[in-house]
Predict the 3D structure of the following.
Amino acid sequence: MLALGGAGAVALAGIATAANASTGDTATDLGTLDAAEANALAAGACMRLTTEQIEGPYYIDYELFRKNVVEDRTGIPLLLRLRAVDAVTCRPIRNSAIEIWHCDASGVYSGYTGNGNGGGGTPTGRPPSPPPSGTPTGPPPGGGGGGHATPTDDLTWLRGIQMTDHQGFVTFRTVFPGWYTGRAVHIHTKVHTGGSRTSTGYTGGRTCHTGQFYFAENAVKATEGIAPYAANTVARVTLDEDMLYPGTGTQGGLLRLVYDRRGIEQGVLGSITMAVDPTASNEGGGSPGGSPAPESSPSPSA
């Protein structure tokens, strides 16, 4: 199992020219994907708005500006390349902030280790941190509903935020997520616009998009026999069975994955372009069906 540095970084770079995209059977590479995407956008082939989804119970607005969110988590290296574009003009959204958070290989979220993997168990390899006296135990198993759970600890792994570059891109180094009760493998995201980075985080503006990223079934299945994923005994929900994935491919958050099918443990490259309305406010507090009611005014702090 490779770490996200040294050999892990080399492996991620190496597989880009000899990998198969998990969303298809043709050989490809990350450079080709980016070129095709850029050509489509340059031609004015605007994407439909990326589907809004619920925030879920495990969001914490730490606003940790960093590219590498791994900390002490182990798992298959995942290089996540995200882009935000204006769904009307097709132009990249510069100097916006893209935020991600997700569970570790055992299905546990930092900040909520006391809840185990979605309420259905405990983390592997370490006991959960005890919650403060009188703290509620959190949401029901699965974490699929709305609302917000009370954190059980101060841990921060697999959470981060970055400002987009002049082409609307950010890149995160993380690990391939695991699974927990009631949900398919996924990553949460928010896109913040209209604000600015300060010494204390991201200030002003609004959350214009709240969504989730999903992984093709063949890629997830390839992780099942690899440590530490193999130790996760929770029944895994497939993408087709997931209660929140809208089944609309890229528009619904399905990542384009690149990895060597001879050994996914070498690392995975994941990419997606989010087409959003930078003037909207979507905090992710709506129904699980992906149609949250937009707020009437921007939030004071993203």
Q: What stands out?
A: The beta strands are 19-21, 27-28, 77-86, 97-101, 159-163, 169-175, 186-198, 201-214, 256-259, 268-276. Residues 1-10, 15-33, 119-144, 288-302 have pLDDT under 50 and may be disordered.
